[in-house]
Write a structure and sequence with these properties.
Elements: E1 3-4, E2 13-23, E3 29-39, E4 50-52, E5 57-63, E6 66-67, E7 71-73, E8 76-78, E9 86-94, E10 104-108, E11 111-115, E12 135-142, E13 147-150, E14 153-158, E15 161-170, E16 177-180, E17 183-190, E18 196-203, H1 212-229, E19 237-243, E20 250-251, E21 256-260, H2 273-288, E22 297-298, H3 304-322, H4 325-344, E23 356-357, H5 366-383, H6 385-399, E24 403-404, H7 406-417, H8 426-429, E25 435-443, E26 446-454, E27 469-476, E28 482-491, E29 495-500, E30 508-511, E31 520-523, H9 527-536, H10 540-561, H11 567-577, H12 584-591, H13 596-605, H14 612-629, H15 634-640, H16 651-671, H17 674-682, H18 686-698, H19 703-713, H20 717-729, H21 736-744, H22 754-766, H23 768-771, H24 777-792, H25 794-800, H26 812-826, H27 833-844
Parallel strand pairs: 2-12, 18-19, 19-21, 22-24, 25-31
Antiparallel strand pairs: 1-23, 2-3, 3-9, 4-8, 5-6, 5-9, 7-8, 10-11, 12-15, 13-16, 14-15, 17-18, 20-21, 25-26, 26-29, 27-28, 27-30
The protein binds arginine and zinc ion (ZN).
Pfam family, one: DUF3458
Domain Peptidase M1 alanyl aminopeptidase Ig-like fold: 432-523
EC number: 3.4.11.2
Length: 845
């Protein structure tokens, strides 16, 4: 059954207040609800009284104290209701211990927890489970668990019970409950208006030592949102809970954020620098949702990008401010090109604001999140920082307490700037990645850039209209001096020219600075000019991208013509990588060659069929050439990356370690693993230990270290996830499937735990040459396990199906194997709605 945006109607009743009482039990939890309804005067509202409810055992239902007879379907119930205000009371029974889908109320390691976004509350009790129905909640929890938490402020507790009251009206998807044997890492924060807020991170006993970093990140986020967006926290308490079994990263429940433990727990011994940075960003992301998501929520799930795009944009600004803005921007572009571009250009392509869906959980995508954030970045760039700030103030002012839409969002920008955003809005409705071609002309001192935009057809959208594209450009003169600083050109037509006068000589243009729009730039540019930009561009993103283009061109020439690596490019690269006046993390990004899946994506964008084995060989040859070319200089560079101060996961130290890891991987190609072994033996933090282990495995010298690592860390779930993932990731292409298969037989392979499942199969899906093995063994193994997991956990299964989204790009043999695997999943009796929607889109789109 498909749901359409155009069918939206408000609910026929207003929920004035909700009171819930939970009597906890693993298999017989009772949920008592008292809900006051009032007829919605809106003439557009639907008149049928329907409460969502799934897998609930209804014990009793009353209206105004009198038993009422109800019609129950698998989706919910209806009954006759009075035409005036009334009180609904129900008692239902649920079995959290049997809930393996991890949606609604479930158990993880003996602890009760919830995940309600998007539509999980209906698995807890009967309710109008839609984001535009907002209400205040009072929650009473009864049970022996020492810690019992819900949203809002504490409202009393006693022997075996605790009560919570959330004064802020919220939709049911922000409801949360946690109960268990938990310990807290406490702290406090004083808001800018002087309000004292109690902060806690709640974890299982034993994990107390992994909370300090998350707590600092939380306080930094609270301060940043006050300073930059003027947003203050609005309750007396803010709780974060770490949960081991969780389908996604984290969830912004009002006053009670619930996190996948991998996204909050951190210590230097067990977490890498990348883990720390990710944790900091996710804590910020969930905290920022308090205003962009909770105080202003979404009218319906088609508007998901209203909160997610904006909140991703805000957390990226936060990371840019705390760390290095150019490094964050380049990393985000790598991620966008690596995850969002394949989605946008394949069978799963959908607009940032989709217009229909079967299962909303399938739309928590890179397009909604990351392209959604890019769209806001473009808006910011087009209107400027001052107007952006004014528009946001108006947004918070005008829509506080609302369930809002993209129309509301764009209107605040129109009202503050006087701009007409009708055409800009296409970024929300049109799917696919625009291709931007550029031609240059130089005559009589005038330089002209002519751009042409074109978006290829995507499923359901054969014809595309021109979009508003902010193109940031700068001009350099032949000496490398900037003659035009960054200027944003606003392209609105299919083809459009921009001229620059008064130039003494033909300039070199730096185009799409800071990656000012999520497009594929197609530029016929000479290697000399690219090398010039690599050497001289003042925009770090374009400088990095010039090198990327040269790397890409070199690798493609190696694949097609058996060419040798491009030494002119390597010369230019060398000057950056060995320049110790530059930020080490920027140098590390420069040194990294495009990933194999990115190269496959590039070939696809150029209309060619990628050969995973050929791509793998070319990248290996290139990396070997780099190692040999710089053999004499690597030891010195490695030394420059040593950190003598005690470990801190800050930008400075992690940049050095990242560059050090890149150097180690080149060195390992020359010394057979000696340096990696030395680093492994001496490592006192996970960043160094893990990069050493990866290199030992790649050098074929990993057997002992793999065992010792296991013995050292077998009690630590999050470190063991790394151990599982790395063995697959570092395997040879013809071994990755066998390694993954062997790991599924390991006693610690707990496939019902999403983190562990993803550790193995996420790593396999990301192993480009390993997963896309010509004989289809990678596809078959993943399909087997998706079929197994679907019974237990549809959400995680469906999400992992996207590993197949590029299948039609490969040769006929691979396609046949992929199709067979997909059909086998599709044919499974009782396949979930989640997975069946994904597989059918992938097959048909
Ligand atoms: N709102 C959460 C976040 O972005 C993610 C929830 C994901 N939910 C889902 N059903 N996939 O922080
Ligand atoms: Zn979010």
């Amino acid at each position: 059954q498909t749901i359409y945006l155009k069918d939206y109607k408000p609910f026929g009743w207003i929920v004035k207040d909700v009171s819930l009482r939970f009597v906890l039990h693993p298999t017989e939890t009772r949920v008592f609800s008292t809900i006051t309804f009032s007829p919605n005067p809106d003439p557009a509202a639907e008149r049928r009284f329907f409460l969502h409810g799934e897998h609930l055992k209804l014990k009793s239902a009353k209206i105004d104290g009198n038993p009422v007879s109800v019609d129950i379907t698998p989706e919910g119930l209806t009954c006759d209701v009075p035409g005036c205000d009334f009180t609904w009371e129900a008692e239902v029974e649920i079995a959290p211990a049997e809930n393996t889908a991890l949606e609604g109320l479930y158990m993880s390691n003996g602890m009760y927890c919830t995940q309600c976004e998007a539509e999980g509350f209906r698995k807890i009790t009967y309710y109008p489970d839609r984001p535009d129905v907002m209400s205040t909640f009072t929650v009473r929890i009864e049970g022996d668990e020492p810690v019992k938490l819900s949203n809002g402020n504490p409202a009393g507790q006693g022997d075996g019970w605790a009560e919570w009251h959330d004064p802020w009206p919220k939709p049911a998807y922000l409801f949360a409950l946690v109960a268990g044997d938990l310990v807290n890492h406490p702290d406090r924060f004083t808001t800018k208006s002087g309000k004292d807020v109690e902060l806690n991170i709640w974890v299982r006993p034993g994990d107390e030592g992994k909370c300090a970093f998350g707590m600092d990140a939380l306080k930094a986020s609270m301060k940043w949102d006050e300073d930059v967006y003027g947003r203050e926290y609005d309750l007396d308490i803010f709780n974060i809970v770490a949960v081991d079994d969780f389908n996604m990263g984290a969830m912004e429940n009002k006053g009670l954020n619930i996190f996948n433990s991998s996204c909050v727990l951190a210590s230097p011994e067990t977490s890498t620098d990348a883990n720390f940075e990710r944790i900091e960003a996710i804590i910020a992301h969930e905290y920022f949702h308090n205003w962009t998501g909770n105080r202003i929520t979404c009218r319906d799930w088609f508007q998901l990008c209203l909160k997610e795009g904006l909140t991703v944009y805000r957390d990226s600004q936060f990371t840019s401010d705390l760390r290095s803005a150019p490094v964050k921007r380049i990393s985000d572009v790598i991620d966008l090109r690596g995850r969002q571009f394949p989605e946008d250009q394949g069978p799963l392509s959908h607009p940032v604001r989709p217009e229909s869906f079967q299962e909303i959980n399938n739309f928590y995508t890179a397009t909604v999140y990351e392209k959604g954030a890019e769209v806001i970045g473009m808006l910011n760039r087009l209107v400027g920082d001052d107007a952006y700030a004014k528009a946001l103030d108006l947004y918070f002012d005008r829509h506080d307490g609302d369930a809002a839409t993209i129309e509301d969002w764009l209107k605040v920008f129109e009202d503050t700037t006087g701009r007409d955003l009708t055409q800009f809005k296409r970024w929300y409705s049109q799917s696919g990645t625009p291709r931007l071609k550029v031609a240059e002309d130089w005559a009589d001192g005038t330089y002209t850039l002519t751009f042409t935009q074109d978006t290829p057809p995507t499923p359901g959208q054969p014809d595309k209209a021109p979009q508003v594209i902010p193109i940031a450009v700068g001009l350099l003169n032949p000496n490398g001096d900037e003659v035009l600083p960054t200027t944003v050109l606003e392209m609105t037509e299919a083809t459009q020219s921009f001229t620059f006068d008064g130039l003494a000589s033909r300039p070199v243009a730096s185009i799409l600075r800071e990656f000012s729009a999520p497009v594929v730039l197609e530029r016929d540019q000479s290697p000399q000019e690219r090398a010039f930009l690599l050497a001289h561009d003042t925009d770090p993103f374009c400088r990095w991208d010039a090198s990327r283009e040269l790397a890409r061109a070199s690798i493609l020439a190696m694949i097609r013509d058996g060419a040798a690596p491009d030494t002119a490019w390597l010369d230019g690269l060398e000057r950056v990588v060995f320049d110790d006046t530059l930020d080490p993390s920027f140098r590390e990004l420069m040194l990294a060659v495009p990933t194999q899946s990115e190269l496959a994506q590039n070939l696809f964008e150029m209309g060619e069929t990628p050969d995973p084995d050929a791509i793998h060989r070319a990248v290996e040859t290139l990396r070997q050439a780099m190692a040999e070319r710089w053999a004499d200089r690597l030891p010195r560079l490695a030394k420059d990356t040593w950190v003598t101060a005690s470990y801190a996961p800050n930008a400075d130290q992690s940049g050095k370690r990242a560059l050090g890891a890149a150097v180690l991987s080149l060195t390992t190609r020359l010394d057979g693993g000696a340096a990696a072994q030395a680093q492994y033996d001496a490592a006192d933090n996970m960043t160094l230990q893990l990069s050493a282990l990866g290199n030992l495995i790649r050098a074929g010298k990993g057997d002992l270290a793999v065992k010792s690592f296991y013995n050292q860390w077998k009690e630590d779930r999050l470190v063991m996830d790394k151990w599982f993932g790395l063995q697959v990731g570092a395997a040879e292409p013809d071994q990755a499937v066998e390694v993954a298969r062997a790991l599924t037989r390991h006693p610690d392979f707990d496939w019902k735990n999403p983190n562990r499942f993803r550790a193995v199969f996420g790593a396999l899906a990301m192993h480009h040459a390993g997963f896309h093995r010509a004989d289809g063994a990678g596809y078959a193994l993943l399909a087997d396990w998706l079929i197994t997991l679907d019974d237990k956990n549809p959400q995680t299964t469906a999400r992992m199906c996207s590993a197949f989204q590029t299948w039609k790009r490969y040769d006929a043999g691979r396609q046949a194997h992929a199709r067979a695997a997909l059909k086998r999943i599709m044919a499974k009796p009782g396949l979930s709605r989640d997975t069946s929607e994904m597989v059918s889109r992938i097959l048909e789109g």
